[in-house]
Amino acid sequence: MKTANSTTLRKSLFVALAALSMGTAALGAQAQTASAATAQGAPQAGRYAHAANQEQRAARAAARTARLHDDLKITPAQENAWNAFVASMKPLARTGKGAAQGARPDRTAWAGLSAPQRMAKHIDMQKQRTAAMEQRLASLNSFYAVLTPEQKKTFDDKAGHFKGRGMRHGGWQRGGDTARG
């Protein structure tokens, strides 16, 4: 004879197993859909998020540049030097796998290299970065030479600190205050 307690227990167990089965089936279907979309070459959300972050960074950099231009009170006579300086401080373009300065190396091409060959390639890449920084320094010196003493002080206070990730990515960042812009 069945008791009410055992019947309730069996029903509860059956409902729990059914819910678990449906949940597992739903997760499996979702995983299949996601893998099918990836296999078909559908864009992934991360790619869009990266592009959005790049746009936000570019907008913040443009705002910082405009703010520095205003803080320095650049005169029309200094405008050409300013424009050359700003252009030289832009990050290096990443145009392809291992093809251009600033590009990430092609992992498949590097996989077959010996350790000394990889080290030699790293040294070559570092030389390219050093040459790019020397060009930026020359542009900075040219721009700095046309500034008045007051502008030099403002520049030193606002933009003279190459901090954090800014120089690694080829640009300059505002120093002094810690507010993000």
Automatic annotation (TrEMBL):
Residues 1-31 form the signal peptide. It comes from the Bacteria. Keywords: Signal. GO terms for cellular component: periplasmic space. Pfam families: LTXXQ (PF07813). Residues 156-181 are annotated as: Disordered. This is Spy/CpxP family protein refolding chaperone.
